[in-house]
Structure formats: C-alpha cells, structure tokens
Amino acid sequence: MTNSNADKKHLRRLGHNLKPVVTIAGKGLTENVGTELERALGDHELIKVKLSVGDRDAKKAMTDEICQKYDALLVQSIGHVVLLYRKAKTPNPKLSNLLRP
Fold this sequence. Notes:
By secondary structure, this protein is of the alpha+beta class. It has one domain (5-85): Translation Initiation Factor IF3. 39% of the residues lie in helices and 22% in strands. A four-stranded mixed beta sheet has the order 1-2-4-3, sandwiched between helices. It is globular, with a radius of gyration of 13 Å.
C-alpha cells in the first residue's frame, strides 16, 4: 500500500470502527509501550493509538517518534487518537484488520 490519498481514504474507512489498542500517557513511549506497539502493528497492521500526552505539539512530536521508530504510516489524527498502518510481513487473516471482514 502506498502513501496516496486513495489508499489513506480506504484505510480511514477500515479504521473507523476500531477501538484504541494502545494508550500512551504521561510517561511517554516506555519500553513496555513500545513492545505493545510492535506487537499490535505486527498482528493487526492497522491500529488506533490514544495519546494523552499534553498539548498539540507534544502529540505531534510523539506521533512523529512512533512513526519513525516503528516504521508506521500515520493515516489519520483526530483529537487524542491516531490511526497507524504498517504492512505485516506475513499477515494473519484472523488478526489483521485489513483481511478480516
């Protein structure tokens, strides 16, 4: 999947009914949170993350750090929730949010 607007629109449609699977709060991006992000992106490919880290600039910095560190694509950011995508090497049809009906 590329970074085109049509692809992002498709991912936003798929992610609309998803619930956040990871929450990042005051302590930031700790080792345990990073492990959970890695697992969730590997299993589900498309995930929502809730950021409770302060103002708009802090959320933007945290989102940029997550995308860079975990090789994820920012699909959408609304309020405290961001929608992230990373293609799995071998997607599991039972877990992937892209392959499940």
